[in-house]
Design goal:
signal, globular, 15% helix, five-stranded antiparallel β-sheet, 235 residues, 4 helices, Lipoprotein, alpha+beta
């Protein structure tokens, strides 16, 4: 009797089963043979509103709007918003009607960093309604920057964000506004604002350290946050 034939037949059966498992069957939830992979949706990336100022921002975190303030009120004596939306209004008249920004209107307009005055206005849809909001920023003699976001409610103009910081780099991520400021200690603060139906509200406020601080050990292994003897975070 030829006994080696039985192990050979078993091996062939095993090979066929493995081939079916690898090539002919897909794992639960996977793709079948010849089925195209679904397209990968691109994630929104930061988009600088004032590129010339992005690499010239100086130290100091911004001052976000308070969370217990009453609802934003329309500006008095501001121009009315027509069918064309905020891009058609006189921006200087809007700034003059805003008590928090009118002091900057007399400084004039600037088109490059290192000067004092109003930056060129920028328009972005931050509320998700398809209409563009007006974003204005002014650089002061003190090295600080005041930034305000305006939206339109019918024909009225409403400020929905006011913040002051040490000349932050201002970006948008999708419909959110991101303000980044760098400090002398090597840290960077990133404050992200999101429309909540009433105003642009802080949804994240992060500080990261890119430089080693005195008294901190340096290594590349990811570890939980540590603090040195001065209470500073070591990265």
């Amino acid at each position: 009797m030829n006994r080696p034939a039985r192990p050979l037949a078993a091996a062939l059966v095993c090979t066929a089963v493995c081939a079916l498992a690898v090539g002919g069957c897909s794992a639960p939830g996977g793709l079948g043979a010849g089925e195209p992979a679904p397209p990968v949706s691109a994630q929104p990336q930061p988009e600088s509103l004032w590129p010339l100022w992005t690499d010239h921002s100086v130290s100091g975190p911004g001052k976000p709007v308070g969370t217990r303030e009453p609802p934003p009120q329309p500006l008095k004596n501001a121009p009315e918003v027509g069918p064309g939306g905020l891009p058609t209004v006189n921006v200087q008249d809007v700034v003059r009607a805003d008590k928090q920004m009118k002091a900057f209107a007399a400084k004039g307009w600037i088109n490059a960093p290192g000067k004092v005055g109003m930056r060129p206005p920028v328009f972005r849809d931050l509320t998700g309604d398809g209409s563009q909001e007006l974003i204005v920023a002014a650089d002061a003699e003190t090295g600080r920057t005041a930034l305000t976001v305006y939206t339109a409610e019918g024909t009225r103009i409403v400020p929905i964000l006011f913040t002051i910081g040490r000349r932050p780099a201002v970006e948008t991520i999708g419909g959110d506004l991101l303000l980044r400021t760098a400090a002398d200690d090597g840290s960077e603060q990133a404050v992200r604002y999101h429309w909540d139906g009433e105003r642009m509200r802080v949804v994240s406020d992060e500080r990261r350290y890119s430089k080693s601080l005195p008294g901190c050990e340096s290594d590349r292994t990811p570890q939980p946050r540590r603090t040195d003897r001065y209470g500073q975070v070591c990265e």
